[in-house]
């Protein structure tokens, strides 16, 4: 078994997941949950989110085959979702909003806050273009960062302030939009060729 480690793929996949998970943008939600519930299970939420993401990376394609959808079609759909997520981040608008979670257990944080529909769609879109081992490294790097943010969310908000968090969201929104366009153009060729 040969591994195809590629630094460029790892960096790109890490940035895509970082932007889609948008844990910094979720700091206000996390702080709100902490005030409501008192304690957030950072370790549990991070481990469950990592498990969900890796499992979907391997089983997601099989699920698609089962319902008769090829990876290129899913990647194009994923690119469109990523594009709309980017628009939300850049313009500061909400196109889609989940119900606000009631408790800080695994359910609201691990899923859908970290490993939500956008993240899972992005994973399959990335799988259409990159080697699995590079995506797994990207998942691990993001989960480490997510864990650190969950552990120190109040401190981060104090340091960055509302404006700092907003600037970071907008910058990653632009990066995410560029990646969505690239994913779309790459996979639309595969769709049109069939």
Automatic annotation (TrEMBL):
Membrane-topology descriptor: Multi-pass membrane protein
Pfam families (alphabetical): MarC
TM regions (residue ranges): 12-33, 45-68, 74-96, 103-124, 130-150, 171-192
InterPro entries: Multi_antbiot-R_MarC
Subcellular location: Cell membrane
Alphabetized UniProt keyword annotations: Cell membrane, Membrane, Transmembrane, Transmembrane helix
Principal cellular location given in the protein's record: membrane
Gene Ontology cellular component annotations, sorted alphabetically: plasma membrane
Similarity comment: family membership: Belongs to the UPF0056 (MarC) family.
Protein name per its UniProtKB record: UPF0056 membrane protein
Organism: Pelagihabitans pacificus
């Amino acid at each position: 078994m040969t591994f195809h480690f590629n630094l460029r793929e790892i960096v790109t996949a890490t940035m895509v997941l970082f932007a889609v998970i948008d844990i910094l943008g979720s700091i206000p939600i996390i702080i709100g949950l902490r005030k409501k519930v008192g304690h957030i299970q950072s370790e549990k939420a991070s481990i469950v989110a990592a498990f969900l993401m890796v499992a979907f990376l391997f089983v997601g394609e099989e699920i698609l085959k089962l319902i008769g959808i090829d990876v290129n079609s899913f990647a194009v759909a994923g690119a469109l979702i990523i594009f709309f997520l980017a628009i939300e981040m850049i313009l500061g608008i909400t196109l889609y909003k989940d119900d606000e979670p009631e408790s800080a257990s695994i359910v609201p944080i691990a899923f859908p806050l970290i490993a939500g529909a956008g993240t899972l769609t992005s994973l399959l879109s990335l799988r259409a273009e990159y080697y699995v081992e590079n995506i797994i490294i990207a998942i691990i790097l993001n989960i480490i960062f997510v864990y650190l943010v969950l552990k120190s969310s109040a401190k981060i908000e104090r340091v960055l302030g509302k404006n700092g968090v907003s600037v970071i969201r907008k910058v990653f929104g632009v990066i995410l939009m560029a990646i969505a366009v690239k994913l779309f153009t790459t996979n639309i060729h595969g769709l049109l060729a069939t």
